[in-house]
Amino acid sequence: MEGNQATxxxxxxxxxxxxxxxxxxxxxxxxxxxxxxAEEKISYRMPTFYLHGNLVHFAAHKHHIxxxxxxxxxxxxxxxxxxxxxxxxxxxxxxxxxxxxxxIREIVKFRVAENQKKAEGKGKKKQGDR
Length: 130
Prior knowledge:
- By secondary structure, this protein is an alpha+beta fold.
- The chain has five helices and six strands; from the N terminus they run ααββββααββα.
- The longest helix has 29 residues, at 101-129.
- This is YdhG-like domain-containing protein.
């Protein structure tokens, strides 16, 4: 059930049954609200938000939504994510449970701050090299 050849997030979402489209659209909205300056694109064949590097990815699977906030996003919210199946840089939100949109929002905000801090650090290094 994973989106294969989509080139835009709209195309990706449109490939799924309406109930999954609703969840994916809400995911997208929550991420956009938490990261308004992030760009949307398809990367690794899934919707991706990009801000000073990859911010988060998400994807529909047969029984869950996969959310990929990088290892740091999983580690920082380990306790909150403990009820879900997770790996180093991903977490699975099963369709039979309510989606934790507020938690997703907090993780995205964390990743925005993290990527902005990294970008500022790179900028300072470049200035110091002159």
